[in-house]
Amino acid sequence: MAVARQYLSSDLQEWGVCETVIDDAVLVVSELLSNALRHAHPLPSGQIKVSWQCTDGHVEVAVSDGGSATEPRAGRAALSSLGGRGLGIVEYLTDNWGVRHDGDVTTVWALVATPDPVGGGRASLPEPALREYI
């Protein structure tokens, strides 16, 4: 997970995203990856895919896996619980999040708002970065 966070942070810095948005996006990816590793099956390749891109006014992050027996949803953990807060954190830090299904692949995505234009006004942004992890 640390490698995914490093790549994401580095790409977003290079694209001119402000530091607070980078911090939020990194935390969101960390929560989504933790949930995928804890609750889901890997993709048929044995991996979990992490991707991100800058869109108009947002950083979109996504984690794809082989799905699980239950649909990802934000819960309300008891104060004494050691877990169960991940998607609640994602919900708090993002403008929107959701789940896409494509055959055996489940993707949980989230949109982190960027208050400033990404790329410092450059005409075009690089292609979406895509990293894959086991």
Question: Quick summary of this structure?
Answer:
The protein has helices spanning 2-14, 19-39, 86-93, and strands at 48-55, 58-65, 96-102, 105-113, 129-133. It has 134 residues and is of the alpha+beta class.
Task: Itemize the secondary structure elements and their pairings.
Elements lengths: L1 H13 L4 H21 L8 E8 L2 E8 L20 H8 L2 E7 L2 E9 L15 E5 L1
Antiparallel strand pairs: 1-2, 1-5, 2-4, 3-4
Helix pairs in contact: 1-2, 2-3
Strand order of the largest sheet: 3-4-2-1-5
CATH topology title: Heat Shock Protein 90
> Given the helix and strand composition, which structural class is it?
alpha+beta
**Please, how many helices?**
3
In CATH, the architecture is 2-Layer Sandwich
Helix-strand sequence: HHEEHEEE
Molecular structure report:
It comes from Planomonospora alba. This is Histidine kinase/HSP90-like ATPase domain-containing protein. InterPro entries: Anti-sigma-factor_SerPK, HATPase_C_sf, HATPase_dom. With about 130 residues, this protein is an alpha+beta fold. The chain has one domain: Histidine kinase-like ATPase, C-terminal domain (Heat Shock Protein 90, 2-Layer Sandwich), CATH 3.30.565.10. It contains 3 helices and 5 strands, in the order ααββαβββ. It has helices at about 1-15, 20-40, 85-95; strands at about 50-55, 60-65, 95-100, 105-115, 130-134. Strands 3-4-2-1-5 form a 5-stranded antiparallel beta sheet. β1 (about 50-55) and β2 form a beta hairpin. α2 (about 20-40) runs antiparallel to α3. The longest helix is centred in the first third of the chain and has 21 residues, at about 20-40.
